[in-house]
Amino acid sequence: MRQMGRRGAVVLGVTGLVTPLALALGTAPAQAASSCTASTGPYQKKVEKFLGRPADGRQSAADCKAIKAFQSKHGITPTIGYAGPVTWGVMDLMNKQKAVGKNPNKDGRCPTNKGRIACVNLTLQLSWIQDGKRLVYGPVPVRTGRDKYETRTGLKKIYWRHIDHVSTLYHVKMPYSQFFDGGQAFHSVGVSVWNPPGSHGCVNMTTKDAKKYWSLLKKGDDVFVYGRKPGT
User: Do 11 and 36 have their domain in common?
Assistant: First the structure.
């Protein structure tokens, strides 16, 4: 991402969904990150149900293994199989995203009088492209700015595109970058889009979705960002 003064400078990211990582570390039992905890977490039953485990609310070796695998996949630390608030926060968000189905603009918050527009719902960490009232692509999960690096809300326009962009601030690759506000951009990221705690303001996507956005959008297209990301 380019350096663009006080409003610029945003890059890369991850999603901080419910509680800060420090709180998560404080709630989980003190153990080596490579171990598997025998402790029952405060969200044990909900986490078990999400993972298709017997929802008895009591930690077992099999429960811990399943929870730990989920944490490892999505970069949730400490990765010890503890059913804490961050782990449940990711799962809860996934449930809410799934419930949206193919009607992401049901509340009419994203403008339908702009023609083709990319919408970003910070509250649900979802994005899609629509043309009037017609859904063109999505909705897809994204990860936006963490606390103090929030993705800015409002109506914007794509003003610069760079398919092989590399951040001048963080020296990380930002493939399929489409900048829409002072250095904040859509771009692909090489980790889970549910990985806490959040980006430095960019809207991170899977490579598949970032490629599709690149093919569907162009310079001058509108982008509308609304809502508030949990934990910010």
Answer: no
Cα 46 to Cα 27, 41, 99, 117, 197, distances in angstroms: 17, 10, 17, 36, 21
The rounded distance, in Å, linking the Cα atoms of 188 and 213 is 10
Same domain, 199 and 173: yes
- Which residues are the active-site residues? 187, 202
* The amino acid at 215: S
Percent helix, strand, coil in the chain (nearest 5)?
Answer: 25, 25, 50
Tens of pLDDT, residue by residue over 139-183, are: 999 999 999 999 999 999 999 999 999 888 777 889 999 999 999
Residues 6+ apart with CB under 8 A from 109: 119, 121, 226, 227
Q: What is the pTM of this model?
A: 0.85
